[in-house]
Amino acid sequence: MEVSTENGYFHGYAKKFRRALGMKEFEQFAALTTDQERFRFVNELKWRVVNDLPLERVQDEGKCLEKALECQAEGRRLAQNEDWLGALKCYNQSYLLIPEENAHEKSLLLDYRAQVLLQLGKTDHSLEDIDRAIAYGFPKDRLSGLWERKAQIFQSKKDFKAAVECYDKTVHYLKHCPVLTDTERDAKIAELQKLTDTVYYQYKNVQKYLEPPKGDRVFRPHLDGGVLYESNETDGRFATAQTNLRPNQLILKEKPHVAALVKEYSLTHCCHCFERIEILYCCPNCTDVVFCSGRCEQIACETYHRYECGFLRTLWKSGATIVSHLALRIIAQKPYSYFEGIRHELPNLVPSLTDKLTSDDYRKVFNLVTHSDKRDPEEYLIWTLMATMLNSILRQGNYTTIQPDDGFLGYLLLHNLQIVNYSAHDVSEVQRKRPNEAGTSVAIGAALYPMLALFNHSCDPGIVRYFTGTTVHVRTIKNIAAGSIIAENYGPLYTKAPRTERRESLASNYRFDCCCQACEADWPAYADMDQSVIRFRCTGPTCQEALLFDLSSECYTMRCNACGQTVDIMERIKLLQDAKMLNRFNEASHLYSVGLFEHALSKYAAIMAIMDQILMPPYRDYHLCQQGIRRCCLDLGSCYVECPNTEK
Asked: Which of 288, 641, 259 is nearest to 444 (CA)?
């Protein structure tokens, strides 16, 4: 990853800034030893080319009442034809486009959308839209209709107490309704009072049997007890297995410290939780992000989005990558006082403290790897300049009225760029055209997961990760012996790319030389695996060597060169035959095809366990079984079907 691409104004700005520096000044920068010094140095000089940085906050861009009303009219037409989903999409778009000052139009639109949501069976969302319509000043002469609809919804939900309260409100507004004649009004009120008495009777008779209302489900992170974090000088901190881990074990479930969508999915997914948008909520001041609920909208607009709002388009135009966006959001999602409050702790953080912290605590991610000692001055200059641009966004966005003279915020931004670059993960969604077609895992954003970030790399990883919204789930895809490293994968798998290519990619992007088993033994790619040779596991008690049996051989006894153990190959072959591996694999594949992913996972895991007792990787069946597990896991996560009702 990089902090910017060449397709944007930041690239040209950085080149011009570099040319504006004299040789002596660049040498001074190269001699600096801390990120705080680097930021202060560049921040003091950036004004030489500041006019080449078109950083301006633009709000209300994209809001348009005329277009909003066109979408609303189309939505009403579709609703009359009972195309509820089509109407909902139009109303969503209209809601996004209506300027905040057009409260009357917004209240009417929310009423229309609430009616469609009720037709779609989304009663809670319908209630929320009704409440918003009222808050936006829905016409008083029509308020009785809204309150009556609320009462009917609560009655259908058997929330009789709320229904009675809403019927009372309905009567109240009917008394002030100028549309009805006195006779009509009195008849309607009498009818409602009878209904209210009936509902009140229901409430009194059933309240003692009703369960208390359930609150929101609280997310609980999960780290398997078999996972232990260790460290050494060579590998830093890494995850190991305390106990033997079997395939298909869920060993980690974690919310991110920070997450951000890429631009392409900023209007199809919730900015805060990454869920696909079905019912749209939006920022009142921009059309750059959308939300899936009022809750997500409130959290974002009260924290990071209040500072990013109006800057996202210029940030995207600058060529800043998701790395830069995440580095900015790490700061913007918390107040300046928070960082000032923990400032004195940052230089002395130790794992015994940070391991106990929650994922939203900045101290938990502060010590993630930066590789600052491996970065050349030219690259460091660009990264520091990006930190100054992000700092300008915070300053113009009124992030804090206190501007520390020592460049503390800029230092944090530069530090964040580095930890995000090496520790963030793409957040993916499986996308397919039609239900029965093969899916493609597509990156919709990126996030920083404090516990997952400590897993080291292998070209033959032991885990697969998948996502539900921004939550990451990690499962094992092979047997991992106690004491072994639990490895994930940062780049190409050994089955798809040769060792030279893998090592070059990892050295370039992550600044380390890969010494995993697949690299050290130079395992062949999937296409190059020799199917005429079976790799049997030595039966010696502690031996980990493979015995290469040629299928053309007529000798079915082999001696291990490592431990001297004599192995009966015919017995090993019979064990494989008795296990009926092909039948098991076909069963697992069938279960996957009919959507029984958990059942398929159990089958694949059982196959892996049997094969691991008899055979040694790499071999094709082992890889195919792992791919089956990966495929099931991905489909347990976020999925999107473009044409769900279209026959193949």
From this structure: 259
